[in-house]
Amino acid sequence: MTSGELRKRFLEFFEKRGHKIVPSSSLLPEDDSSVLLTTAGMQQFKLYYTGAKDPVKDFGARRTVSIQKSLRTSDIDEVGDESHLTFFEMLGNFGFGDYFKEDAIKWSWEFITKELGISPERCHVSVFKGDPSTNSGQVVPEDTESIAIWKSLGLGDDKIKKCGREDNFWGPTGDEGPCGPTSEIYVDGVEIWNLVFNQYYCRADKNLEPLKQNGIDTGMGLERLAMISQDAPTIFETDLFEPLIQSIPHKDIENEARAVRIVVDHIRGSVFLIADGILPSNIGAGYILRRLLRRAIRYGKVLDFDKNFLISLAEKVIKMYKEFYPEISIKREDILTVIQKEEEKFYKTLEKGLKELEKTLAAKKEKIISGEDAFHLYESYGFPTELTRELAEERGFNIDESGWETSFKKHREISRAGAEKKFGGHGIATGDRRQATSFKEIDKITRLHTATHLLHQAIHDVLGNEAEVQQRGSDITPERLRFDFAFPRKLTPEELKKIENIVNKKIKLDLPVFSAKMSKEGAIRMGARAFLKDKYPNEVNVYSIGDPDPSKAYSKELCGGPHVARTGEIGEFKIIKEESSSAGIRRIRAVVE
Ligand code: SER
User: Fold this and answer.
1) Looking at the structure, do residues 327 and 473 belong to the same domain, yes or no?
2) Which of 67, 137, 429, 451 is deepest in the core (most CB within 10 A)?
């Protein structure tokens, strides 16, 4: 079935069952500062779930159906494999204080197995198994209702997988909002449809309270559905991508196939973002657009694109999608101009990088480019390694591949997400609902950042005598911090409690936080901790907690900040998990409340 037919069937199926067809909202969410971009169909309906808005007044019904333009960047590094995308179309049906699990499950099953004729043999489902230990101490029960409904449809125990909070509990988007258990439908092992049963409101303090009215929110990626329905081996062989891919000359080898997928995904997302009024910039949604476009240009270079290639690809996207999304046709001129301008800008940066590469090559006696040099080009000028490799080879040089691997791994934490938001040496997750957008989220990240420094020292306090623990990574999102360190065994519950208590004690003492510039040597001599020592410049910034003199301070670290002014601002610190992240590396996740 073509994707056009799938869209039509979906809308009509739910329209026949009393749903009002609502057009996709913009990729730039209106009236919702908690998220940067639209990442799900339910976003435009958030206020109908809480009862703040009346769906009957606005839609003449308590149920709606839509096909929502959505963009998520959390998996951007995975794009290029067989199943990851940034931009996608989400088919969804929604109910506000209307029908609940029984109808939602039965209709989804009917749509998949009857309307589309997919054999039940190919399907299985997942349901929420309950969570006895939420952060707030609340127990969230197993979704026995959904299990009973699936059984009534003929699914045996072997077809119903029970999963925990990570997999089968959705929401809220942003800091607070509706959320609830989910049930997912899989075909041939691929998750295609997520049914969310909104029955709670998650408050900003993470406590769940029952929603006044139950809500239904479902989401199914059109690309995956097309893959199943068209028997395509990957989403890229469906009618949503095939014509674009075919139009790009490339060899059937791994790195080229990957580059083509990245280019096609990113240009599709860019076209839709520009049509919704977003311009490339260095912040917020504009930054996401810039990143997509520049990555598309970079990977286009791997494929030997000439300068106008992206424009002609954008024109193809417009042609393919304009029937269903007329806005991209209306904004055609804007789209093409923005892409062209960004391309010109980026080529200038690339030229600078090329000069740098020439210099690097000219200074070499041996015909080898070190991993550090290749990494520098990648990090500072956005050169994909494929490009450096090719240009070097043209001149008879080789890249020290294992050196490159080491450099890349070493810098991965800070280079992640393009080092776009660097908080000291800690990776900050960006993109979709985890992006640090609102001030509230930046404030939360700052508190978690200072908490990370306290945690780092407390780990040394408790474990330092047994082995030389070493920081291996750090990652902070508005929801939690994650800290990796080298240590040979699992921590005992007593050790974890001790670490947590020390951090909370330092928070209670409301210690002042100081920052000072000093020489790297001096800082290290005074015991300041550094994550990637050799990458720091000679003059460094040191954050000291408890005393302006690092040698007297409780915690001292080389770090770019920002941090809170006093530890009392952090709030209560809680370790939520300790696990192994890889051989010899432990990982702690913690939150502040
Ligand atoms: N909101 C859910 C999701 O994004 C279902 O629509 O998966």
Assistant:
1) no
2) 451
